[in-house]
Amino acid sequence: MPRITDYRKTDKLFNLNCFREVMSRNRYMLIMRVLHFSRNPERGAGVSKPSRLYKIDTVVEYFNNRMLELYQPSKQLSLDESMVLWRGRLIFRQYIKNKRHKYGIKLYMLTAPNRLVLDILIFSGQGTDSTPEQSHTEHVVYRLMENHLDKGH
């Protein structure tokens, strides 16, 4: 959603009951106020060139693993590309002129038909692990679908 307040609206266009049912607005805002990512020395220590996302890698990995444990997707899955608005300084910030948010962080997502995000891959422009015979697009597809291959999806 474009704004945090849109998650709480009761309008037909924005009606997402799941957010209002799970957590109160005040509790969510308190968590957002105190959530902070600081140095993670054990993740970046001893590595000559740590990942650009090493501060949030554990959170993204946790989300992906929990979604894999908790949700059994239907037959149809889709891969989507999304932009998270970011106008600050960031070495892997993207510019895509046709998007509503022209500057931001590019996310690749595996989603279910009900728009539930099952897996996230953040594009950092570094360490895509793609081989010469495998393009970036192929790498993204295989990475997002690795836990769902040969299962009828």
UniProtKB/TrEMBL annotation:
Residues 1-153 form the PiggyBac transposable element-derived protein domain. Pfam families: DDE_Tnp_1_7. This is PiggyBac transposable element-derived protein domain-containing protein. It comes from Acyrthosiphon pisum.
